[in-house]
Every structure is written in C-alpha cells, then in structure tokens.
Design goal:
448 residues, mainly alpha, Growth Hormone, Chain: A, 17 helices
Length: 448
C-alpha cells in the first residue's frame, strides 16, 4: 500500500447522497406490506403474502450476497450501484403492474412476488456499499459519520413506508395498492449515478472471506451484530400484528415503526460523531447494546397489554436509539477487525449472517403464535368483521423468544468481543512513517 496522503473531494457528498437515495428506495420496497399485513393477504389472495414478501428479501440476500461481495471488490462501486438501481426499479415496476385491478386476483401474488424477488436481488448490491464508499472517499475522521448516514438510509426508507402504507391502504381504501406502488416506484426512479476511484490494494475475494472467518473477533461480531439485524427484521415483521390484536389503531402501529427508525437515526448520528472523534467503537457498541436489551425487555412485556401507548412509545424509542446506533458502528468495526480485507466483503458477510438469522427468527416466532382470547377478538383492529378472524393471533410467546435471543446476543458480545483496531493502527503507522520521512528529508536538505 502506498505511503501517499490522499485528499478528499467535495463530490464525495454527492456520491454519499446517491448511495443514501438507493438505500432509502430499497428499504421502502422491502417493507411495503409489513404495516398492512391483513389487507395484503386479502388483496393478493394468499394468507402468507405479507410474510413471504418480507422473507424473500432475507432469503435472496444470502446467495446474492456472495455475488455482491465479489462483484463490488472486483469491479467497484459504480457497477454495483447500477445493478442495484436497475434491479430495484425493475422489481418495483413489476410490483406496480401486479397491484393493478386489471390483473386477475389469482395472478396478483405470483407476479408481485416476482417483482419483490427482483428488487430483493438489488439489496446486497446497495447495502454493501456504505463502508467501501466511506473508506474510499472520506477522511478517516469522517468515515463513521458517512457510513452512518448511508447505512441508516435503508431503515429510514423502512420507517417512511411503515408510516405511509396505512395511509394508502386502510379500512376505507382496502384495495388502494396500485396508487401506493406508484409512489414507491417513483422513489425508485430518483437515484443518480455513482462513480468511484480505487486506490486500495486488498486481498482477493475468497482470501478475504477466509481471513474474516479465521478472525475470532469477526465471528463474534458477525453473530451478534448480524443477530441484531435479524431481530430487527423479525420485530418489523411482527410489530403490527402484535399491536393490532391488543386494539391499537393502525395509524399508531405504523407510527411505531417510524419511531423505531427515527430514534435509531438520532442514536446512530450521536454514536457516529463519538466514534469519529474519540474512536471508542467497542465501548459505545457495548453500552448501546445493553441499553437496547433493557428497552427490548420492556417492549416484550408491554406488547401484551392494551391502552399503554406511553409504555410502548418509550420502549420503542429507547430500543431504536440503542439498537440502531450499533449497526453502522458495527460495520466499521468489521472493517477494522479484518483489515486489509475489502470493506464490501466484511460488511456483506455480516449482513448475510444477519439475514440468515432473520429468516430463522421470523419463522420461529411465527410458529410460536397463540390463539386470542374472546376479549382480544372483541378489541382487535387487525381485520374487519367481514374478513377472516382466524388470521388474528396473539404474540406473547414470540416476543418472549425474541427477548431471550436478544439477551443471549448481548451477553456473548459483552463478554467475548475485544477487538483490535487494525486499520486505524495501520493508518497511524503510515502517518508516523510519513512524518519521519519528511523530517529526514528536511534534515538532508539542511546538511546540503
């Protein structure tokens, strides 16, 4: 690697904006149907439609993830960005066609599922970009902030869609899927072109994968941070049906998904500034993880009661602020722990590990649902009287299982995660070597 000192360019912020925009679009494409589960199942004539639309993103990210890791490291950010943009856009167009009233009801789900799968193909290509973009285009004291802004754009897209989906599709407009998908498709058109330059020599892709899995630090990080990603996916999938069975208003349910991301954005921004300034990756992550654990326990309890909006709001706010602040820092920590492995490789592996666990958590929690009491059926807001009441379920045990998994990950992370800052140590060594070299040259000039 060269001892040269690189300069930063103003256009790095344009590239960051472009990355944020495609992350945002792909996020709201993923979660479109999660906040309107029962309307989705009814409109697409499949009792598991909303669940399958969600899970396909997680399932496809595993095989496609390996392709995306290799592609980004081999061909760079620009081509990966184009693949992500076009796959996301084409998938949204297919979904839009499938949601039209002119499509036969029995054909809507297979066509829409195809579009969702095409958009899901884009996810690894866009979600693996932030750490590499931050490393190539931003100064070392800006990386965590840049990575935070790009990484959090995906959950922001999720939050926005979680809020506006019930506005489009609700009791008065239960079939308004076409207009909703028009809005999502328009957002998918917006992202601009992204360019890159390459100045870093990394080991070959498969060698990088081997180095990651030879690192005990990375394995612990992958399991715990990836597990956190999986638990967030399961929470988003289960939050709306868990709240509606206790009589909470659909608008409130959608707002809770947005609050989760909004508070997470605040927490991630604060933690990003802290680690950029002081570099306390490990300490910040452990504190935030523990805060999220306490809030998660509170949420798992209050989700079983009606008319405790204040409790639900407080639990979700604190959980989001603590939990989401871990994610962008963790991706940077993955780069630090595996340096000089290419950034997209370490980031991609962590996200893929998270998606594997996400599929497991979603399936496991959905298998643990219970039958509602007569009181629950009387107050529920999940379905109308003329819809299938048998689809209304209780979520006490799924959230208890979710909490147990969260606690296990926190204990593993706090006890076993003790990283070395390989990239920062290397760069510090490079700066010292450059300073010594400059000093030697000045001394030589003085003697001459």
């Amino acid at each position: 690697m060269s001892n040269e000192e690189y300069r930063v360019y103003s256009k790095r912020w344009i590239y960051l904006l472009a990355s944020c925009m495609i992350q945002f679009s792909n996020g709201n494409t993923w979660i479109t149907y999660a906040a309107i589960t029962f309307y989705t199942n009814d409109y697409y004539a499949n009792n598991n439609a909303a669940l399958l639309f969600n899970v396909i993103f997680m399932v496809l990210s595993i095989p496609v993830g390996f392709l995306a890791c290799w592609w980004i490291d081999k061909f760079g950010l620009r081509s990966a960005y184009h693949i992500g943009v076009w796959s996301n856009f084409i998938g949204n167009v297919i979904r839009l066609v499938a949601s039209g009233s002119f499509i036969e009801p029995n054909l809507r789900f297979p066509i829409a599922f195809t579009g969702q799968a095409v958009a899901a193909f884009a996810q690894p290509f866009v979600m693996f970009l932030p750490t590499k973009l931050a490393a190539y285009w931003f100064a070392d004291n800006e990386r965590a902030l840049a990575n935070t802004l790009a990484s959090m754009s995906n959950p922001i897209g999720i939050a926005v869609m979680y809020s506006i989906a019930p506005v489009f599709v609700n009791r008065t407009t239960p079939d308004n899927f076409f207009n909703m998908n028009i809005a999502v498709t328009i957002v998918a058109i917006i992202p601009q072109h992204l360019q890159r330059d390459s100045d870093v020599q990394a080991p070959p892709f498969f060698e990088g994968v081997k180095r990651c899995f030879r690192s005990r630090t990375f394995i612990i990080l992958g399991i715990c941070l990836g597990g956190g990603v999986g638990l967030f996916n399961a929470l988003y999938n289960n939050l709306q049906p868990a709240l509606c069975v206790k009589g909470y208003d659909p608008t409130f349910n959608g707002g809770m998904g947005s609050l989760l991301i909004g508070s997470g954005l605040v927490g991630a921004a604060v933690s990003g500034i802290i680690v950029d300034k002081w570099g306390q990756f490990e300490r910040v992550m452990k504190i935030a993880f523990c805060i999220a654990g306490v809030a998660g326990a509170s949420l798992a309890i209050c989700i079983n009661y009606e008319n405790v909006q204040w409790w639900v709001i407080a639990s979700i706010f604190v959980f989001g602020a603590g939990g989401f602040s871990v994610f962008p820092i963790g991706l940077e920590m993955g780069v630090e722990a595996t340096f000089p492995v290419a950034e997209a490789t370490s980031t991609g592996l962590i996200i893929m590990i998270g998606q594997v666990q996400g599929v497991f958590f979603v399936i496991m929690t959905n298998l643990a649902v219970g039958k509602p009491t007569p009181h629950d059926l009387a107050i529920q807001t999940c379905v109308d009287a003329n819809q299938n009441i048998n689809t209304v379920l209780t979520w006490k045990w799924p959230f208890l299982i979710w909490l147990i998994c969260l606690c296990i990950l926190i204990v593993l992370f706090v006890i076993f995660f003790w990283p070395k800052y390989k990239r920062r140590n290397y760069e510090q060594g490079q700066r010292i070597a450059k300073t010594q070299n400059d000093f030697s040259l000045e001394c030589e000039k003085t003697r001459v």
